[in-house]
Fold this sequence. Notes:
- The protein is α/β, with parallel strands linked by helices.
- It has 2 domains: 84-344, Type I PLP-dependent aspartate aminotransferase-like (Major domain) (Aspartate Aminotransferase, domain 2, 3-Layer(aba) Sandwich), CATH 3.40.640.10; 350-452, Alpha-Beta Complex (Aspartate Aminotransferase, domain 1), CATH 3.90.1150.
- The protein contains 13 helices and 13 strands.
- The protein has helices spanning 8-18, 49-60, 84-90, 93-96, 108-125, 137-152, 165-175, 195-200, 223-232, 335-372, 396-405, 414-417, 438-451; strands at residues 129-130, 156-159, 181-183, 206-212, 236-241, 260-264, 280-284, 296-302, 308-315, 378-379, 387-391, 412-413, 427-431.
- Helix 6 packs across helix 7 (165-175).
- The chain is globular and about 65 Å long.
- The N and C termini lie far apart (54 Å).
Amino acid sequence: MRYLPLTDADRSAMLSVIGANSIDDLFVDVPEEARLDGPIQGLPLHASEMAVEKHMRKLSKKNLAAADAPFFLGAGAYRHHVPASVDHIIQRGEFLTAYTPYQPEIAQGTLQMLFEFQTQVARLYGCAVANASLYDGSTACWEAVAMATRVTRRKKAVLSGALHPHYTEVVKTMARFTGDEIADAKPAIQAEPDNAGLIARIDEETACVVVQYPDILGRIGNLQEVADAAHAKGALLIAVNTEPVALGVIQAPGDLGADIVVGEGQALGVGLQFGGPYLGLFAVRDPKHVRQMPGRLCGETVDAEGKRGFVLTLSTREQHIRREKATSNICTNSGLCALAFSVHMTLLGEKGLRQLAAENHRLACLAAERLASVPGVTVLNTTFFNEFTVRLGKDAREVVRKLADDDVLAGVSLGRLYPGNEELADGLLVAVTETTSEEDIEALATALEEACS
Length: 453
């Protein structure tokens, strides 16, 4: 049975204190059509624990697991091999049960891990300073925009049309509450990113320009060109990276002029996990901006005896003293996911990351070449890492559904990412990683030959 610790009198007393007439008053910001007006249709009002377990097992058998079929989904969440040692280490009690180190002197292990994590992210991104992680890539993207408005004291953010649409929506949602102007754009399905069109939208009121690298279609644009244009107008460049493995072979965004680099760390150590929890990465190129960073920063020092130690150096967050000076309401970090990322990165090392990235790109090139030979299929990209876009000449959503019925997870249709944009409806985003075999690539090509004939 449900656990209901509060009585009707308890609820009435609480509502009275906050000045609400009923519980419904707490949901006035939710559109009425999105609210339930009664029990969910089709669900029983109650069932035994054994009956629920049996039912859930039956439902789970309908799933097609990523490891059980040719798998080409990406678009911001990638299937990579995670060594068993990663899970073994993060399951250790001292890590699994650790919480935010409010008393650093008794949390040296956690602080050292976060310090090493920050070092790895800073080196990966080509930046001077990285924080101790955020919730995920999309919220890190918004935090970067908010930081840029504080640094420049401007209120306008120019977003590339090739930024992941989910990231764009998070930024626009948050900006509703800050009054910032978000200038986004429609994506253009073309071989190269539209840098000229993006640069033309930058003006003297622009706080930042947000670009994805590689972008949502898998293309690798000229970041330096956009950085120079942004800086000429006094704006900052924010680079978003959703596939950290790519930085094993392509140049770091910070080295190309990006002022703030953010991204999703899921690809290393974390796994797909049904969509979360994931890991937000955040770094800045110029140390003078460190006090405007969100989240927390761990630092290295020495104790009274001269021994190496770690401290919570900076915590610009709302629940600490001087909370009115907080730069963000981010009040924790994805600590266990950050540990998984750091362990995987440590196991790989620089050489291993470069080898992993090279293998991803090699297999992606094989896939692009094979799919280009399929009648009716056109490969859009002239540049890519392990993800590229193909055009099918028909609605990709229908093709994806048909192939899924045949146990081939073909990729992410652009019609799903951009509902209502028929110009993109025939686009299919295909991701290839080291977990993809050449047999998988052939299975996809064969299935597309049938589906597109």
